[in-house]
Amino acid sequence: MSAVSAPLALGALDLAALLCSRICHDLISPVGAIVNGIEVLEEDKDEETKTFALDLIKKSSRTASAKLQFCRLAFGAAGAAGAQIELGDAESAARGILDESKTTLTWNLQRGPLAKNKVKLLLNMLMIGIGAIPRGGTLTVDALPGGEAISGFRVTAAGQNARLNPTVSALMAGSPADPVDAHGVQPLYAGILARDCAWTLTGASEGETVVLTAR
Q1: What is the CATH number of the domain that holds 129?
Q2: Is the pTM here over 0.85, yes or no?
Q3: What mean pLDDT comes out for the span 48-76?
Q4: Full residue range of the structural domain in which residue 118 is found
C-alpha cells in the first residue's frame, strides 16, 4: 500500500499573493464596469445613454461592495487571533453576492458568534458551491450537530448540470496534480481552513446535486 501524501505546504508569501490575485480577479469586472459607465457620462450627452450609464454604475457599485464585504470575511483577518465572527454577518455577506444572481440561498444556521476560521471556512465552502452550479440553482447551508456546539457544516448546491470538478476535490484535500494558480487557490485555502479547524473538507456529486461537508 502506498503512503498517503501530506497536504501541499504552500509558502505564506505564495499563498498571500495567490489569494490577492484571486480577489483582484473577482473585482476587475464590476470595477471596470464602473469606469466604463463614468467614461460614457463624460463623453455622451444623450439622456437615454446617460441613464443607462448611471444604472450600470449603480449596479456595478453594489456588486463590487458586496464582493468586498464577502472577501473581507472569507479571506481577511477579521480581528485578532482567536476572534469570532457573527454568523448573521456571514449570512448577510453571502446573500449580498447572490443578490442579483440566479441562485437562491437557504441559511439554516442560528445567529451567534463562532470561531473566525470556521466562519471563513463556511464562506469558502459557499464559493465552491456557487462554482458547482454555474447555471444557478439553490444553496442550502446546514450545521452538523455535536452536542451543544456546531461540529461541522454541510453546503448543498443543487442546479442544472451541478458538478464538482475532480481538480477542486484534489485542491480541497491539498493534493493538486498541477501547480496552484490564482483560480485554484480558493478551494486549496478552504482545505487549509478545514485542517486548521481539525476538520476534513470533502465533496460529492449525486445527480444534479453537489454536497460539501466539513467535520
Answers
A1: 3.30.565.10
A2: yes
A3: 93
A4: 13-214
